[in-house]
Amino acid sequence: MSSLLKYSLAFVALTAIFSCSNYSGEEIVEDSLPVIWPDYREVTVPVNMAPLNFTMEQPVFLSRGENTFSRLEATVEGADGTTMIGSGKRVIRFSPRRWRRLLEKNAGDSLRVMVRSLEGKQWHRYRPFVIYVSDRPIDHGLVYRHIAPGYEVYSKVGIYQRELSSFRTKAIYENTLIPQTCVNCHSFKQGDPDYFSLHVRGEKGATVLQKEGVFRYLDSRTDSTASAFSYPSWHPEGRFIAYSLNKTYQSFHVTSEDRVEVYDLVSDIVIYDTQENCILAGDHLTTGAFETFPKFSADGRSLYFCLAREQDLPSEYRDLRYDLCRVDFDPLTGETGQEIHTVIDAVSIGKSISQPVPSPDGRYILFSLLDFGTFPVNHRASELALLDLEDGTWRLLDAWNSPDVESYHSWSSHSDWVVFASRRRDGLLVLPYIGHIDREGRVGKPFLLPQKDPVHFYGTLTRSFNCPELITAPVKLKLRELERRANRMDREAVQFRRID
After folding, report:
1. CA 396, CA 121: separation in Å to the nearest integer?
2. How far apart (Å, rounded) are the C-alpha atoms in residues 443 and 398?
3. What backbone torsions phi and psi does residue 197 show, to the nearest 5 degrees?
4. Would residue 6 count as lying in a domain?
5. Which residues pair with 198 in a beta bridge?
6. Is the pLDDT of residue 184 over 90?
7. Buried b / exposed e across 313-331, counting CB within 10 Å, b at 16+?
8. Residue 460, exposed/middle/buried by CB under 10 A (0-12, 13-18, 19+)?
9. Cα distances (angstroms) measured from residue 336 to each of 344, 433, 499
10. Which of 119, 134, 149 is the last residue of a domain?
11. Does the pLDDT of residue 369 top 50, yes or no?
12. Cis omega before residue 314 (within 30°)?
């Protein structure tokens, strides 16, 4: 073959490639914002957030044939003039290194995002949208339980941690390590992984307590308590942990839009002294009424919890409603005050409060508001609400709520960010959303946890993100010690002392 013929064929091939994927003719300017998913338009993100990779939904005028683009492209321009481009056929991806630099240079300002789509040989350009960049970073990572959205068997359950400045994810514990177990109720002292508690349920189960490098495997069942430990709350100083003791049951609905109702037949609150290995119990928090979801205040001088009067369950489960209450707490002795103060009388307005979480700066309490009951993840009517502890007022967070479930929530260590769980995407899986909150309690549009390929990740996901908790550093659980202690049934018994 002659040299001239070789060059001619090469030119034809390059021309074909260029004309198919890099057409540079006149583009059509659309007078509309791009419909993207996840929806990152007008959100506020922390300066150390992983890239917000996204896809674009097919607009009506491109709906003929397959629901695909030839190419997607996004140009991101910072207020400082720095730009970067992300692209892809199905998902627009950004370079993690360049994305990190762009956020750092525009901390406290905004990014302008212009999206283009190529349909065949025709480019379409859309109106730009803004992403706001807070100069307040979010904590190192997110810890969550992955669990199937079913209710009958454990299946595969695990606790995982995700680094929020990247897409790196690592298992902390999976129940394949100890078969026929479930794991739940992971908790940290204001996000500090050196103070870590979780429960392994099953024949070999116990409460895992890892404090300042010391591992303990506790059998928290005693002859004087209703159950083993449940929902925990670390005291800010790290010596005490408040636990509820719950006997939890499920009822399944045939016609209701809510598939299942979870309720407690018994729920009490006790204080565990990690120094003395002793449960401290008072008569006023272990009554025939229902006390649950304890949470220490930021200064450690109060203990908040939910309280409902005694009901005939399960027949009266729709009448079970909880107020938000508080008792004084003595961080020197671990004893609680005798007087129970009602903080929010939700019962009087026909509502129920669940999962109160004080902010680390001591200003607010974020809680779930339901029509009845105590388990918001199963109630479509569950909404997030915010109590201002300075003036005692509370309000629904409309910017964060949706027509579906909002439930479990966690504050960042500096009270600038909240992660919460929601079923808003499909009504089935619980997914983590991140929202910004300023010093005046103003909240912005929340955003779905970014993924390297959100279409593939969330499109193939079959397990919920349960109980998301923010952490300030990686969790280093002593797995081999846990496995050894569990398989040998080597559990440390706790002592019991009544303090009234």
Report:
1. 48
2. 9
3. -140, 140
4. no
5. 208
6. no
7. beeebeebbbbbbbbebee
8. exposed
9. 20, 35, 9
10. 134
11. yes
12. yes
One-character DSSP codes across 246-277: EEEEEEE-SSSSS-EEEEEEEEEEEEEETTTT
Q: What is the mean pLDDT of the chain?
A: 88
Helix (H), strand (E) at residue 487: helix 479-487
CA distances from 495 to 5, 244, 266, 490, 498 (A): 90, 16, 21, 16, 10
Q: Token digits for 338?
A: 């005798």
pLDDT of residue 263: 63
Where in the sequence is the domain holding 362, given as residue range(s)?
141-492
Paired residues of 74 in beta bridges: 86, 115
pLDDT at 500: 73
CATH code assigned at 100: 2.60.40.1930
Query: Cα separation of 106 and 130, whole Å?
Result: 12
Same-domain status, 74 and 171: no
Domain total of the chain: 2
Whether residue 406 sits in one domain with residue 370: yes
Are residues 116 and 153 both part of a single domain?
no
Pair (59, 173) in one structural domain: no
Q: Are residues 149 and 119 in the same domain?
A: no
Co-location of 221 and 85 in the same domain: no
